[in-house]
Design brief:
By secondary structure, the chain is mainly beta. It has one domain. The protein has a two-stranded antiparallel sheet. A two-stranded antiparallel sheet has the order 3-4. Strand 1 and strand 2 form a beta hairpin. The chain is elongated, with a radius of gyration of 14 Å.
Length: 62
Amino acid sequence: MTLLNNTYDIYAIATIDGTDIVLDSLNMVLGENSQEQFLIFEQDDSASSGYQMFLVNQKKSD
C-alpha cells in the first residue's frame, strides 16, 4: 500500500459478539523523508486491551 505524505490515525478493531472494540490505535505522520515501515500488531498483557501496535522501519537508516 502506498500512502501520500499526510497524518493518519490507525485503528485495530475487532468485532466481538456484534460489538466493535478498539484494540489499539496510533497516529502516523508521513513526510518526504519517511521510510517504508511495517505495522506490527502483537499481544501485550500490560495493555488494557491485551494488544499493541507499533511501526518499525523496513530498512535501517544510513
